[in-house]
Inverse folding.
């Protein structure tokens, strides 16, 4: 570890345990620099004089709100608009045409699970907005959820920096859907209203979210521990409508179990929900089940 | 190897952009203004052009309009690269035949993203 880093090794290990217990995500053993960078920024936003002061406060008083903010900051990752063009092509060329065959007028529901600062959700909203130009009767609903965090606040505001709007976003989309706001750019109200951003503990019971035709949970599964992956997929399966889709990242893989989904041949990361989910083996049978948490109040 | 002409009156911008383009496997050449760029294109039409807007002698927009009317001038991918952030101005550049638009300041990730968007990567 670099001499410039200030976090004690014991605190780094405690942060790793906290992140694993609260969010099911295993931080690497050698990610000190990333942890320090992210938490230093958080400590300034939280009004602490230093990162060390914030971590002392966290572990001496065990504040739930601060713990959630710390874990959320550690889970943040860089997001891009239209990240992985192939995945969005999959959506427009394969998934949506199949969902729209025989479309009966009920709203198509989309869930962006682990939305971070919201680029996936707004990319989806732009994609659907263009589709609606051809299908004016189409009704859709987009729900975007993640842990409460500074990133999620930004998703709610729909405000992005000069650099963020130039990563993955075609300039014509910037001109159509954004307005300049000082040095930043803000999503126009029409598009922002299409996305319902909600705080949500990703490992908690998902039933309250309702059921969806498409769930986007891309490029995140691999960050979770094996038990947390099982729990996430077991929670997403019941809220995916029959014949609906779960869109993972192209490198995300299901383990031995299928959770009621079939891989769609020729479309990496795309899974289709069975009509009649197969019976699964309980992965916790005979073993201790992870603590059930349904809200942040329980932490 | 694909070729890219960097047109900017700032020597520093030309050098920085040239280095980024080299990392993206382009053979980069330079021009200081629209007139020099036009001469370079007549001599050898590049695959891509990274084009500043405000330059002495001939600005980027005038160059682009002239390029698109010239023989073979519709083929290069043109990515504007300017400090201009006014949406109406940006759309004026796009309507004149630009394929994408980079707002300065930029970094290598933005150039890569915009060139990919323009279909040249």
């Amino acid at each position: 570890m670099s001499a410039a880093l200030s976090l004690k090794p014991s605190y780094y290990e405690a942060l790793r345990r906290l992140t694993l217990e609260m969010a099911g995500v295993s931080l690497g053993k050698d990610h000190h620099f990333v942890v320090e960078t992210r938490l230093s920024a958080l400590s300034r936003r939280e009004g602490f004089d230093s990162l060390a002061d914030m971590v002392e406060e966290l572990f001496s008083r065990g504040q739930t709100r601060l713990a959630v903010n710390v874990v959320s900051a550690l889970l943040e990752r860089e997001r891009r608009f239209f990240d992985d063009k192939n995945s969005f092509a999959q959506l427009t060329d394969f998934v949506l045409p199949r969902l729209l065959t025989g479309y009966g007028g009920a709203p198509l529901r989309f869930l962006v699970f682990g939305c971070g600062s919201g680029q996936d959700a707004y990319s989806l909203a732009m994609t659907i907005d263009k589709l609606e130009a051809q299908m004016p009767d189409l009704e859709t609903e987009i729900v975007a959820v993640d842990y409460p965090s500074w990133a999620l606040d930004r998703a709610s505001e729909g405000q992005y920096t000069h650099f963020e709007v130039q990563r993955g976003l075609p300039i014509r989309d910037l001109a159509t859907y954004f307005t300049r706001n000082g040095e930043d750019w803000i999503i126009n109200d029409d598009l922002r209203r299409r996305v319902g951003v909600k705080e949500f503990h990703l490992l908690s019971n998902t039933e309250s979210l309702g059921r969806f035709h498409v769930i986007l949970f891309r490029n995140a599964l691999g960050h979770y521990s094996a038990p947390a992956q099982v729990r996430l997929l077991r929670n997403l399966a019941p809220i995916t409508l029959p014949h609906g889709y779960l869109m993972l990242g192209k490198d995300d893989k299901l383990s031995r179990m299928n959770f009621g989904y079939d891989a769609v041949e020729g479309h990496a990361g795309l899974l289709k929900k069975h009509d009649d989910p197969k019976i699964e083996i309980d992965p916790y049978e005979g073993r201790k089940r992870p603590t059930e948490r349904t809200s942040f109040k329980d932490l | 190897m694909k070729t890219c002409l960097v047109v900017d009156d700032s020597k520093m911008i030309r050098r920085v952009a040239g280095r980024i383009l080299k990392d993206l496997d382009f053979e980069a050449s330079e021009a200081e203004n629209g007139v020099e760029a036009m001469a370079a294109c007549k001599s050898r039409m590049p695959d891509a052009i990274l084009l500043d807007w405000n330059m002495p002698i001939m600005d980027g927009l005038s160059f682009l309009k002239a390029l698109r009317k010239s023989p073979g001038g519709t083929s290069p991918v043109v990515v504007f690269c300017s400090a201009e952030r006014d949406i109406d101005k940006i759309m004026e550049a796009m309507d004149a035949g630009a394929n994408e638009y980079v707002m300065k300041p930029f970094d290598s990730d933005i150039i890569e993203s915009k060139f990919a968007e323009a279909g040249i990567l």
